[in-house]
Structure formats: structure tokens, C-alpha cells
Inverse folding.
């Protein structure tokens, strides 16, 4: 699985790879997005579902994760968890660390 991080504060983005195990993506801010791309690609026999298990992030059916827009308490970090499930296969959890509105 790969993911593209799309920061809300600029038009630049970068890719990061996701291998077996859980991925920890640090320092996400208000409005940031992550687009997940899974391999093998979805087909008639392979389906993926995305769900938020913890936190205020949202994820659409195509794997686009969007951070909320609220701020956090001073110095605090909110931990969110998104689950990616493949029919007939394994599930993977992605932990996201949300820092609120960027200064």
C-alpha cells in the first residue's frame, strides 16, 4: 500500500510507502489529507473498505483520509486510527497523529 500526503498549507505532496505492519504518520494538521492507494488494485474479486475506528478524521470509499479542522489543546496530540480491510485478506491499521491548526 502506498499513500500520498497532501498538506493543506501548500500544493506540494509527497509519497510514503506502507509495508506490512502498522504505519505511523506523524505531524498531521488541520485540513491535511492522505490518499491511500492499495496493491493489488480493487477488482471484481478484491474489494477494499476504509473506516475510521478512532478520532475525528474522515475517510471516503476511495481511501481519501481528511483531517478535521478543529484545534487541539495546547501541546496535545490526538491519535486517530483508520482501518483498511480487504475482502478475503488481511486488515491493516494506520495510526495518525493530529496536531490541530498549524501555527
Amino acid at each position: 500500500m502506498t499513500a500520498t500526503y497532501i498538506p493543506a498549507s501548500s500544493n506540494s505532496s509527497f509519497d510514503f510507502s506502507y509495508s506490512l505492519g502498522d504505519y505511523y504518520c506523524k505531524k498531521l494538521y488541520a485540513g491535511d489529507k492522505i490518499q491511500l492507494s492499495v496493491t493489488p488494485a480493487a477488482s471484481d474479486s478484491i474489494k477494499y473498505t476504509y473506516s475510521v475506528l478512532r478520532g475525528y478524521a474522515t475517510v471516503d470509499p476511495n481511501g481519501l483520509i481528511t483531517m478535521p479542522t478543529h484545534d487541539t489543546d495546547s501541546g496535545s496530540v490526538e491519535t486517530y486510527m483508520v482501518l483498511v480491510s480487504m475482502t478475503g485478506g488481511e486488515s491493516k491499521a494506520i495510526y495518525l497523529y493530529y496536531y490541530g491548526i498549524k501555527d
